[in-house]
């Protein structure tokens, strides 16, 4: 198992420009996506993979960044203050720039890393479950060279992200999380245990 884990503080710059060829895509990045692209880039530069590599990414609640949800909610309320689906369609979505929608999608880190590294293998986004991420990898269409990753932007503005190249045998030998903790906690534990390379 080859593991990479990165942490960026609230004001710390994320060197994403060093890890992406098409810089026009940066306007679609939120902080988690930027950190994930860098962390995956560091891992994959040192450990190249084939395009068919299976890739699974776990993400949690987006605590930090404001994507304009309050503006959407306000524009979607009727005169009684209740949510109105018609107002949501007509005014709510229009209350924020369209590019904001890309920043709020859970599959953006997986998508941009796949684009950057030409990954066309089996892939999935898993929501808030380290156990789900590891289980998904166990069902990958190949036994070796599986890419797993995770990321999270926290309320205080710091972001953590981790990536690993694993084999099914290594996953089977891991102590599976006994709860549905976010995968970032698993990668943080691996970092503290010195599993990182």
Q: Main traits of this protein?
A:
197 residues, alpha/beta, Peroxisomal Thiolase, Chain A, domain 1, 2 domains, 5-stranded mixed β-sheet
CATH class of the largest domain: Alpha Beta
CATH topology of the largest domain: Peroxisomal Thiolase, Chain A, domain 1
General form = globular
Element order: H for helix, E for strand: EHEHHHHEHEEHH
Separation of the first and last Cα atoms:
9 Å
- The percent of residues in helical segments reads 25-40%
User: Taking all residues together, what is the mean pLDDT?
Assistant: 87
**β-strand number:** 5
CATH architecture of the largest domain: 3-Layer(aba) Sandwich
Flag low-confidence runs. none
Number of domains: 2
Count of alpha and pi helical runs: 8
Instruction: Please give the order of strands in the largest beta sheet.
Output: 1-5-4-2-3
Q: What characterizes the major β-sheet?
A: 5 strands, mixed
Strand content: 15-25%
Class by SSE composition: alpha/beta
User: Rg from C-alpha positions?
Assistant: 18 Å
Description of the structure:
The chain has 197 residues and is of the alpha/beta class. The chain has 2 domains: 2-60 and 106-193, Peroxisomal Thiolase, Chain A, domain 1; 67-98, no CATH class. Helices cover 37% and strands 17% of the residues. It contains 8 helices and 5 strands. The chain has helices at 31-46, 69-75, 85-92, 98-104, 108-117, 130-138, 168-172, 183-193; strands at residues 2-8, 55-59, 123-127, 146-153, 159-166. It has a 5-stranded mixed beta sheet with strand order 1-5-4-2-3, with helices on both faces. Strand 4 and strand 5 (159-166) form a beta hairpin. Helix 1 (31-46) packs parallel to helix 5 (108-117) and helix 2 packs across helix 3. It is globular and about 60 Å long. The termini are close together.
């Amino acid at each position: 198992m080859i593991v990479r884990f990165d942490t960026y503080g609230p004001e710390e710059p994320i060197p994403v420009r060093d890890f992406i060829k098409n810089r026009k895509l940066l306007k679609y990045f939120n902080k988690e996506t930027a950190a994930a692209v860098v962390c995956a880039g560091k891992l994959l530069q040192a450990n190249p993979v084939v395009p068919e590599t299976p890739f699974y990414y776990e993400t949690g609640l987006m605590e930090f960044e404001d994507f304009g949800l309050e503006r959407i909610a306000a524009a979607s309320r009727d005169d009684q203050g209740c949510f109105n689906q018609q107002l949501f369609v007509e005014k709510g979505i229009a209350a924020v720039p369209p590019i904001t929608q890309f920043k709020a999608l859970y599959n953006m880190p997986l998508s941009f890393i796949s684009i950057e590294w030409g990954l066309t293998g089996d892939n999935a986004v898993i929501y808030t479950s380290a156990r789900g991420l590891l289980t998904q990898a166990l069902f990958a269409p190949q036994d070796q060279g599986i890419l797993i990753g995770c990321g999270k932007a926290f309320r205080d503005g710091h972001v953590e992200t981790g990536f690993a190249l694993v084999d099914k045998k290594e996953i089977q030998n891991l102590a599976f999380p006994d709860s549905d903790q976010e995968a970032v906690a698993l990668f943080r534990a691996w970092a503290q245990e010195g599993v990182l390379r």
